[in-house]
Amino acid sequence: MNRLKDCHSSFLREAAEQPVDWYPWGEEAFERAKREDKPVLVDVGAVWCHWCHVMDRETYSDPEIALFINTNFVAVKVDRDEMPSLDRKLQRAVSSITGESGWPLTVFMTPEGTVFFGGTYFPPVDMYGRIGMKRLLKEILRIWREERGKIKEAALALMDYSPSASQTPSFDVVETAISSVLSSFDFEYGGLGTGMKFPHPTVDNLLLSYSHWTKDDVDKRLALFTLKKMYQGGIFDQVGGGFHRYATDREWNVPHFEKLLIDNAELLEDYLNAYLTSGDPQALDALELTLEFVLREMTTEVGFASSVDADSEGEEGGFYVWEKKELMEASGKEWDLVNKVFQLVGEANLPGGVLRLRDDSSDLAKHLGLDVGSFLTHLRRVRETLRTYRDSTRKKPFRDDNLYTYPNCRIAEGIIRAFPLTGMGLKEALRVVGELRRRVSRRLQGGGEGLLEDYASALLASLSAYEVTGDLKYRDLSLSLGEELMSFLKPEGFTDSRDSREVPVMDTPNESPNSLALRGILKLGLIEDRFKVPEETLGKMLGDYYQGPPFYAGIISSIGATQRGLAHVVVIDEGDGLADKLHREALLTYHPLKLVERVRIEDRDLVTPLVRSMIKYGNGSRAYICVGNTCSLPQSEPDKIKLLLKSPSPQ
Predict the structure, then answer these.
(1) What is the DSSP string of 92-157?
(2) What b-and-e string marks burial along 20-40, b requiring 16 or more CB atoms within 10 Å of the CB?
């Protein structure tokens, strides 16, 4: 075994028996490289990454390649889930030199820590139109020995990213971003671009926000159009629920099959917001099926597993693909309906096909003579039949039970926010929040000081727990987390860690740590106004649009909310039962950026002066709805909450 056998990371431990003499990232590897004057080979990947497994299996397990690496290089393996900041720096450096980025990331570095070459996947020998690792290693070594000057010329230091430009944080920024989204929107199949597609939850939510602010339904319809196309496609697990990471094609048909907790957390909220704005039953079905998948397949004793692998028994997607004969057998007496509703796609590139819906559910229901609700209920039973068959006949993919704080808090936030609608998962989500303290670690139960993404997601999860339960312990936890989070704030934005100048502002397309932090601080500022981000810092966060406005959609949504007004709903609970209805209406009425507080009359001495003043006036349970700098009179009718939250200036 090499040096990886005792690592916490599942990705690193999987390589513990490889013939390559791997080091984890650290000074020891680079000190040896300096001592022996050898280049450093760094492999960056993740346990859920299919091509990382392929490269480990075919390239790094090749005895000839391993011997050459061990003799001439110092080899380092990095788990991008454990070290996202390092991954970002390495991705930027390799992309600047060779134009490639992604996972697996193959990086060649000097002993001093500069990058001089890299790429993504390298097969053992030349194939797929790519240079093989055997030939590449020999050429790298030749240049290292004979043309060291070329390496010094090409080498790039690992620099923290800090925005170099600034913009005025006005609503014009939102308009520009919307125009950019529309210019790359696929009006036939939804999403961005016309090649392989990733979900972009922050873009969907920006479109929903823009529709709310402008009272124009077009952008909302585009967001819903994308979400329905994804729900119909193979990127959505039509049998077991939940989303795969991305689709390899324009139509969302054939996915890369890994399922990540963070992706499903963001899509859970994406579909929740879409349902709250539209009432579309397909959005609700996608939301519920995703939530059921997470609770059924990802739950551990403390929190939620990080990912489910793409491969099963050495075959990508082996757990998810079907041959028609097997599908008929699994369907039993439901075959006629299965055949009318589903189709198999991707059979030319897979050992079988991936299930997708043939059409929009409303059209399928009409074809079958059913209303949409009845159709989806019947379809749910069919899915359960297929899932039971699949679970009993196939080996499930590997599940990474590392309890990373960031994705756990993101899924907890989503589950808690959805709870008033779904009635599912509150206990499991609050168990995650219950693990949080003022100082946050990389893992829920320890594992080094937390990064910005950990603190920001912890704050959002804690705030959602306070909003839904009304328990003041979650408010107090949120205030403590907010104080810690503010220590990350610099003039350019929130830094990745307390001792770093890395300012992660770009959605990847997962929401950026700066967007999460900004959203959390804006919400917390509605409780105590000492929490705020200076306007000039907001302008710096927008920076220089490193990869175009759609990749800043998360931050831009928050900036739009600062321009058009954050919403703050305070429900005063007099114990007469009405507060339940007011509270539920406040939680389930859409607003782009909103905080809901439910305050019991007996807690009047424990709340902020603003809320205390609201308690003084009126009788019976009531709600105050504030948007921007304007607050309503006390309201005792739930419908008035919905009306006032939709109004730009409550009166």
Answers:
(1) HHHHHHHS--SSSEEEEE-TTSEEEEEES---SSSBTTB--HHHHHHHHHHHHHH-HHHHHHH-EE
(2) bbbbbbeeebbeebeeeebbb
Confidence of residue 648 (pLDDT cuts 50, 70, 90): low
Peptide bond into 509 cis (omega under 30): yes
C-alpha distance from residue 290 to each of 150, 239, 372, 424 (Å): 51, 11, 19, 12
- 358 close to 364: Cβ distance less than 8 angstroms: yes
Res. 649 pLDDT band, cuts 50 70 90: very low
Beta bridge partners, 474, equal none
At CA 314, angle to CA 309 and CA 317, rounded to 5?
Answer: 55
Place of tokens 């059409």: 359
HSE of 474, CA atoms in CB hemisphere, 13 A: 26
> Nearest 5 degrees, angle CA 12-CA 13-CA 14?
90
* Arithmetic mean of pLDDT, 186-195: 96
258-272 pLDDT, tens digit per residue, is: 999 999 999 999 999
pLDDT tens for each residue of 355-391:
999 999 999 999 999 999 999 999 999 999 999 999 9
Measured distance CA(76)–CA(82) in Å, rounded: 14
Tell me what pLDDT residue 618 has: 82
Looking at the chain, the whole-number percentage of residues with pLDDT higher than 90 is 88
